[in-house]
Amino acid sequence: MGASNSANLDINALERAFKLFDENGNKTICSTEFANTMKELNGYVNPQLTDLCFQLVDLNGSATIDKKEFISFMSKIQSIKSPDIYDLIGCAADVNGDHKINATEIYRVYQCLGRTDIPQPMTVQEFVVKLRKGRIGGKL
Ligand SMILES: [Ca+2]
Ligand SMILES: [Ca+2]
């Protein structure tokens, strides 16, 4: 294995993080494993927020997070210092990683929430601020 100085992702760290989540070692993370590990890492987190985060990280909607989806998610949260659940949701919602929540991405979030009152596209930063204030999803 050559040095990976071009990649800013530490594959070993990613493997360790993935294994932390993948409690039964079946190479996918289910929603229970995700919720358990989030709780271990962050203390109590509103289960609805954890669930929303899980659904957004699960890009293909298979109800499990595979390594590819996990790495895609981790690569987006890299730049954030001590991200909390709101930051994590913001990153997960930004599927293409351009720091904006475009119309397709915002639709996906609202679909996960079972809502149809889709707001206008916004930046990830704006999205996270609204999320913190409870303005995304209302009931969260
Ligand atoms: Ca999946
Ligand atoms: Ca985006």
Put the structure in a nutshell.
This protein is mostly helical. The chain has one domain: EF-hand (Recoverin, domain 1), CATH 1.10.238.10. The chain is 52% helix and 6% strand.
Structure description:
- There is one protein chain.
- By secondary structure, the protein is mainly alpha-helical.
- The chain has a single domain, classed as Recoverin, domain 1.
- Helix content is 52%, strand content 6%.
- It contains 7 helices and 4 strands, in the order αβααβααβαβα.
- The protein has a two-stranded antiparallel sheet. A two-stranded antiparallel ribbon has the order 3-4.
- Helix 5 crosses helix 7.
- The longest helix is centred in the first third of the chain and has 12 residues.
- The N terminus is likely disordered.
- Bound molecules: calcium ion (2 copies).
- One calcium ion binds next to strand 2.
- One calcium ion binds next to strand 3.
- Keywords: Calcium.
- GO terms for molecular function: calcium ion binding.
- This is EF-hand domain-containing protein.
- Pfam families: EF-hand_7.
- InterPro entries: EF-hand-dom_pair (IPR011992), EF_Hand_1_Ca_BS (IPR018247), EF_hand_dom (IPR002048).
